[in-house]
Amino acid sequence: MFDRHAGGEAAILVHLDFSSGDQAEDVAELQELVRSAGLTVLQLVTGSRKQPDPRYFLGEGKAEELRAAVQAHKAEVAIINHQMSPAQERNLERLIQCRVVDRVGLILDIFAQRAQTHEGKLQVELAQLKHLSTRLVRGWTHLDRQRGGGVGMRGPGETQLETDRRLVMAKIDQIEKRLLKVAETREQSRRSRRRNEVKTVSLVGYTNAGKSTLFNALTESGVYAADQLFATLDPTLRRLPIEQTQVLAADTVGFIRHLPHDLVHAFKATLTETREADLLLHVVDAADPLRDDKIASVKAVLQEIGAEDVPSITVFNKIDCLPDMAPRIECDENGMPVRAFVSAVTGAGLSELLDAIEERVVNTRVELTLILPPEAAKLRAKLFALQAVQHESIDEDGAFHLFLQIDAVEWARLRHDPQARPYLPEISQHTEADDWTAATQLEH
After folding, report:
1. pLDDT (tens digit, 9 = 90+) per residue, 43-70?
2. Which stretch of DSSP H or E encloses residue 34?
3. Is residue 229 over pLDDT 80?
4. Beta pairing partners, 30
5. Which residues does the annotation place in the binding site for Mg(2+)?
6. Which residue of 108, 160, 263, 397 has the lowest C-beta tally within 10 Å?
C-alpha cells in the first residue's frame, strides 16, 4: 500500500448519478463542501450507475479514469461524493495510489475545522473516532507484509491493529463519559430556564440557509456568518427583544442530506436544545431551487432526534433574491402564525417575525378533556406532575376524566412518548403539507 499523505489540498472530485434513491447527491453541494474544507479542485469526474460497484464503488472503468486523472494532475486526495464502505475506500486507494475521502469523511473534516468550544471539539472527535474505528487497517502501511499470512508472517500485524482498536474504543468511551457530563450541565440549565419560565426558540434548517444571519438580525448579536456550508457549528444562545416574557434564541448547526449518523449521535447533547425548544424556526432559503428536497432533509433529521412534534414556524429567508416577493406572515385555520417570508440581510419582515414568535410562545396552552383508562395510571401521574390537571372525575368503569390546561410544547413532548401517544388525541395547528404548498407557490 502507498504511504498516506499527512494532508491534501489538491483534490479530484468524483460524483456518480444514481438517478434516484438515497444515493442521489448534488454536484453543486459537493463543490460547496470542498470549498468549505479549503481544498483546491483540479478536476470533476462524473458518471452514472444503477448501483454502487461492490469493489470500487465507482466501477472498474470509472476507477481507471480516476487513476489517470490523479496521475495527470498529481492530486493528493480524491473526494467521493457518496458514503463508501471501508473496503471500497481501501480498494480504490490501492488502485489509484492516492488518499480517498468519502462524503462522510469530508463533512467530518469540515466540522473539525469549525469546532471552537470544548463541547464542539469533543463531539467532532467522537464522530471522527467512530468513523476511524472501521478504517484503521488503512493507516498501518508498515504492517502490510505481516498481514499476508504464511509461516513467520502471522501475529504482529494483527496484534498491533487489535491494540490500536482497543485504544480507539477506550478513547471513545472516555469522550462519551465527558459528553455525558456536558449533557447533564445543559439539562440543569434547561431546568433552570423552565423554572424561570424562560422560553427557547431554536433556529434549524439546511446548512447555508441563512440561519446565523437571521439569528444576528433578530438578536442584534455578532455570531460568525459566512456564505459557506457549516459556517456555524457550536450552539449559541442570545435573548430576543420580546417584552412580555424572556425568550432565548438558539443558533444550531446546519443540517445536510445524508448527515452522517455518527455526527447526529455525537451532537445529541447539542441537538437536545432543538428537541427541548418551545418553538422551532425552520429557516429555508426561498431562492434555492432545491428547497423542497432540503425541507424534507431537515424534517428527516428532526424526526431522527425526536423534535418533529415541536411547534414550528417555517421561515422562508432571502426573499430579497426573488423579484416581487413581499414580506408577510401566513397563519393556519386557527389564526396562529405558521409561515414567515423575510430577508435577514435587508431586515424585511423581521419585526413581523418577532411578533409571530411572541404570539406562538406566550400563553400557548392547550385546553381539553382527556379520558384515560385505569391502565394509564402512569400517564395520569405525569399529567399531575406537570400541574396540567385542573379537574378530575372518575366514572363507573374506573376511567379518569381529566380537564387539562397544558403548555403546547409539553403536550407535543407527551405525544412523542410512545407509551403515552395511544391515549392522547392529536391536536395539530398546521400540517407539513401546508409548508410544501407554500414552498411550491414561490415558483409562480
Report:
1. 999 888 888 899 999 989 999 999 999 9
2. helix 27-37
3. no
4. none
5. 212, 232
6. 397
Contact between 407 and 365 under an 8 Å Cβ cutoff? The reply is yes
**124 φ/ψ sector (left φ>0, alpha ψ -120 to 50, else beta):** alpha
**Mind listing the domains of the chain with CATH numbers?**
10-101 (3.40.50.11060), 197-363+430-441 (3.40.50.300), 365-423 (3.30.70)
Binding site, annotated residues for GTP: 205-212, 230-234, 251-254, 317-320
Report residue 19's pLDDT band, with 50, 70 and 90 as the boundaries.
low
The reported pLDDT for the residue numbered 199 is 84
Q: Which three cell numbers stand for residue 214?
A: 437571521
8 Å CB contact between 18 and 49: yes
Q: At 309, list the grid cell.
A: 412534534
Q: Which residues pair with 14 in a beta bridge?
A: 45, 80
Binding residues: 205-212, 230-234, 251-254, 317-320
pTM to 2 decimal places: 0.68
214 contacts 354 by C-beta, under 8 angstroms: no
